[in-house]
Amino acid sequence: MDIVMVPGFWLDGSSWAEVTPPLVAAGHRVHPVTLPGLESAGADRSSISLRDHVDAVTALVDSLRVGVVLVGHSGGGATIHGVVDARPDRVRRAVYVDCGPTGDGDCVNDELPVIGGEIPLPPWSSFDVADLADLDEVLRAEFRARAIPEPRGPAHDAQVLHDARRYDVPATVVACEFPSSLLREWIASGHAFTAELGRIHDVEFVDLPTGHWPQFTRPTDLADVILHAVDRPGV
Q: Which of 95, 133, 223, 224 places its Cα 20 to 30 Å from the Cα of 204?
């Protein structure tokens, strides 16, 4: 199986380094993505949009065999959902790591502070306690050392979706900061945050209690969750 892995904000494809070995060992072809504008701290990201990220991953999917699993972390969830919408017949499952699908007209987070046309990694004090669970001082230092400013567009742009067949693509939601029971409650109550997720016909919830970056805090366990999702019947 081809597994396309899309990082969240401030991260490039190398951020999956501790997650990918078990996937490769299991015989899968793994494709960690570095999104446009995240190639280096000095890259020109001034005009990069959410659509550029979606199009880049869609082009990668088009280059692979039929039967692709998409994995998206955090802001990468918006990107992979855009790809599901663009290629619903090529994606076998979408795995949302501590995130969910961003609906048409919604944005990831337009409250993140823009400095000089881009979004640097904010100070740790800007994050909730739940975000930082298990991210100790060593991991925080390593994260900040590797962090790349995020283009403004992927955070602020409205998602544009067209194909209702996206709801036929099965999804796995890896719940880290919030337990899956709370996500189910939000879906049942019609909460806007989970509105798009609630429209997907087949959703699997997996609890992986930790902070917002399980690829750093629980990489082996995250790999196991992804393997389970890939091995589900019908994938």
A: 133
